[in-house]
Structure formats: structure tokens, C-alpha cells
Amino acid sequence: xxxxxxxxxxxxxxxxxxxxxxxxxxxxxxxxxxxxxxxxxxxxxxxxxxxxxxxxxxxxxxxxxxxxxxxxxxxxxxxxxxxxxxxxxxxxxxxxxxxxxxxxxxxxxxxxxxxxxxxxxxxxxxxxxxxxxxxxxxxxxxxxxxxxxxxxxxxxxxxxxxxxxxxxxxxxxxxxxxxxxxxxxxxxxxxxxxxxxxxxxxxxxxxxxxxxxxxxxxxxxxxxxxxxxxxxxxxxxxxxxxxxxxxxxxxxxxxxxxxxxxxxxxxxxxxxxxxxxxxxxxxxxxxxxxxxxxxxxxxxxxxxxxxxxxxxxxxxxxxxxxxxxxxxxxxxxxxxxxxxxxxxxxxxxxxxxxxxxxxxxxxxxxxxxxxxxxxxxxxxxxxxxxxxxxxxxxxxxxxxxxxxxxxxxxxxxxxxxxxxxxxxxxxxxxxxxxxxxxxxxxxxxxxxxxxxxxxxxxxxxxxxxxxxxxxxxxxxxxxxxxxxxxxxxxxxxxxx
Length: 496
Fold this sequence. Notes:
Elements: H1 2-43, H2 55-73, H3 78-90, H4 95-102, H5 106-123, H6 126-135, H7 144-161, H8 164-181, H9 189-205, H10 213-226, H11 232-257, H12 263-267, H13 279-297, H14 307-329, E1 332-333, E2 336-337, H15 341-348, H16 351-367, H17 374-381, H18 391-406, H19 411-428, H20 433-443, H21 455-460, H22 469-493
Helix pairs in contact: 1-2, 2-3, 3-16, 4-16, 5-8, 5-14, 5-15, 6-8, 7-8, 7-9, 7-11, 8-9, 9-11, 10-19, 11-22, 13-14, 18-19, 18-20, 18-22, 19-20, 20-22
């Protein structure tokens, strides 16, 4: 007995030494990662900038690439903080301007509010209710692939009609609920594939409807060049069926390439016990969700030029969301607030994640700033090379280049940069300017491979709790490549 007691301190000491070695090794790895990131970041100060790109532009490019590497190698916040410091150091803008371009946007504000809403839906049981409802449909019972298709289609629908952030966050919560229900955990194959798939549908939703932010800007550029607006019916017929086709293709990739084992979904038995205890809270939350959706959709149906339309335009989506929360926080039931905003914000808003999103929002403005010369460099060196090939190859190269660039630059900027150059070329090649323009608009949202790719990717990459950068590239690269070819085929086959 005494021998055992004497051996105990030795064992404990060995454990402590082993732990110290592990921590030291982890510290060395983190230090090495930081060195690599910093070397890439500061290389722009020494590499000559190819004209017409400026020295500032080269610095911005290397700082941006270093942040992508940093975000991919580590889940910590320091790459975001580094970018917040180094981008102003390039000379592209001041720190104050950089902060305003990220934290000061209505997008950032709306995202904070969206996280609070999703937290409210989660705490009241709406997320689990929706997961249970989805799994409980008779035509889905025993058919996991139908369930997966429904989740992806619901994402595309909600994101297209309401808001990309709301749709993604809501459907992610549904996937989280299903994941726990089938006994899996974050980073298992099912949640990783679904988290990415939801983000992919969120990306394509950006161009789905003509009243979407991306679509309004893109169609405005087209109208200015052509002197007449595009056919809205043709636009919807081009975009929406492709979105549905892309969902089917992603399911095929999931089944045959990623080889997802859906057996746990088939065997999952729905447990609805205890839902009656939250009947009132659940019902209230569902009503609030419906009201929120209606408020966001309203601008699409309110007559243009009316006072109500002017009211909506003055506030935007973020303002309307704030108004919604002001009203709901004033509501009480049985002497308790229906929604405690401060409590929900404290527990559900991932500020580390939002830090990254804010920096990403600011980076987009930096890369297209005239001081960088990046847009001019692309216009002079990339676009002219497209004119000396057959029409089908021309279309493939244009779409591929747009997909590549849109993963690094703002989607709408890529469209605005390409359309004035490409549209005049189309007639001589026997291609419809409207069709090619729609193809470019569609390709511009096939952007999920970098955090700055689009609104969807800016939310996807920070979600490291459920999906890593490695997993994003694992599922993202094949998906984006297949989507690129699919867009070209769709353009060639579309009767326009």
C-alpha cells in the first residue's frame, strides 16, 4: 500500500512532464505558423509590382494571402487582428477607414442580430422542432437522400427569398440538431458535408432573384451597357433552375465522390418527447420567425415610390431587424420578457467569428481600391487573352476566370469589370450578350474557396467549430470545379 502511495507522485510527475512536452510542441508549431504567415505578409514590401498594379496593391495581395494561410492553419483570432493592422500599413486606407468598412457596415450589424435570432430559435426549441419536422415527414422516412435534398432546397429557398445569413444560420442549426440526434459530433462527415452544402446554396442564392443585392447591382451594370434592362423572366428562368440543378449535382458528389454513409440517418428514430412542455414558447418563436421573414420580404412587394417603400429603404435589412427586436424585447409573458436580447447576445453571438467576418468585409474594399491597381492589372492582362479562341472555349475561359477572380474579389466588382469588355465581343462570336452576362453573374457567386469569396464564405470559414479549412477545400474544390463546367454547359444549352 505504501509502495503504491510512494509511486503516485512519480506517476503524476511523469504526466506533468508529458503534458509540458505536448504544450511545448504545440507552442513551437504555432510559432512556426506565425512565422510563415508573417513572411508571406511582408513579402509584398519587397516583390516588385507588375504594372499597372501599384506597390500598395502588391502589399495588399500578400497580406490577404497571408491571412488566408493564417485562417487555414489556425482557428485563432490573431490572423484577423494582424490583417486589421497590416492593411492600413500598406497605405490603402487608414485604420479608422478599415474599421468603418468592416464593423461599421449594416451587413455586420445584421449578422449580429441574425445570431441573436438564431440563438432565440435554438433556446425556444425551434431549431430542434424544424429538425424533427423534417425527419418526421412520411415521404422522407427511411430515405436519407430525400432528407438531404430537402435541407439543401430549403436553404436555397430561404436564402433566396429572405436573406443569405438568416437561411444559412437557421439551416445550420437544423443540421446541428440532426447531427446530435444521430449520435454524431462536429467534424464528422455528415455535418461537415451539410454545413458546406448549406453554404454553397447560400452562395448561389445571392444571384437567384432579381431583387437580391448582387442581382440588383449586376443587372444595373448590364442595363447601363446595353441601354435597356435585361428580361427579368429570362433571368429567373436562367438562375433558379440552375440552383435546383446544382443541388442535385452536389447530392451526386456527396453520394459517389465524397461517399457519405447515410445509414445513421436511415436508422435514426425520432424522439418528440417533452416538446409539449415548451408548447407556448415554441409557438411564440415560430410566429416571431414568420413575422421576421415577412418583414424582410416586404420590400420586394411594396409599390416603388410609396412612403412605405421609402421607409424601408431608409433603414435597410439591418434597420428592419433592429426594429423587430426593439418591439419583441418590449413584449412580456407571465412577467418574463419574451426575448432577452442582452442574454442571448452574450451566449450566442460568436465574437471571434464576427471579428473575422468584419475584417473580410473591409478587405473587399481594400482590394478594389484604385490605389492598388489590381482591377486595372486584371483588365489589361487577363481579358484581352480571351478574344483569340473559339466561342465555346471563349465561354469556358471567361467563366473559369470569373470563378477564379470572384474567390478573391467582390463578386459585383468582378461582374462590373468583365461585362463592359465581354459584351461587345459576344456578337462577333455568335453568342447572346444577355446569355453570357447571365453566365458571368452566375459564375460570380461560385465563390466559396476563400473567406472573402462571398457573403456565404465569410460565414463558412469562421465556423471552425463544425468545419475546418481542410474540410472546406476537400469538399469545396471538387464542387466549384464541377459547378464551373456545369455553368458553361448550362449557358450553351439554355434557349436564349
